[in-house]
Amino acid sequence: MPYSLFQDDFAEIAEKETRTVIILQKSQFDLPPAHYSLLEMFCDEPGCDCRRVMFYVVSSRNNKSVAVVCYGWENRDFYAKWLHDDDPSMIDELRGPVLNLSSPQSKLAPAILEMIEEVVLPDQTYVERVKHHYTMLREKIDGKRLSRKEAIKRRKRRALARSRKK
Ligand SMILES: [Zn+2]
Asked: Which domain holds residue 83?
């Protein structure tokens, strides 16, 4: 699954809508005080609809990635169907939230994951925003989905063309 940064395609929106969590000196999380920006990455494989985000978390202390966290917002059935497999551990891996296995993680990564689980994901408004970003990127890759009416019209046109050939 190739991934691309939302900000590469939608720089202006990303600038306004990227979430940054500010951790102060004394927080409930075992993290040094900093601004942690959650850069969103989405799969950009044509025709894929995996409905997941990868948070590439960058710390303001060194501008480096401190963790990469995967999160899928659909239910387990969705990922089981998508995967054609109902292996629970594979579904957990897809759906998360979980530290992405194939990305480098820093020693802060477990605390970042905890912060995302407890502060970021319970914020339904924010999760909706991420889903919207996903849809924007999908539309850019796959083209706008045809409306029902338009799809039927095309189908009819094709059927007509076929019948003429006979
Ligand atoms: Zn995908």
From this structure: 3-165
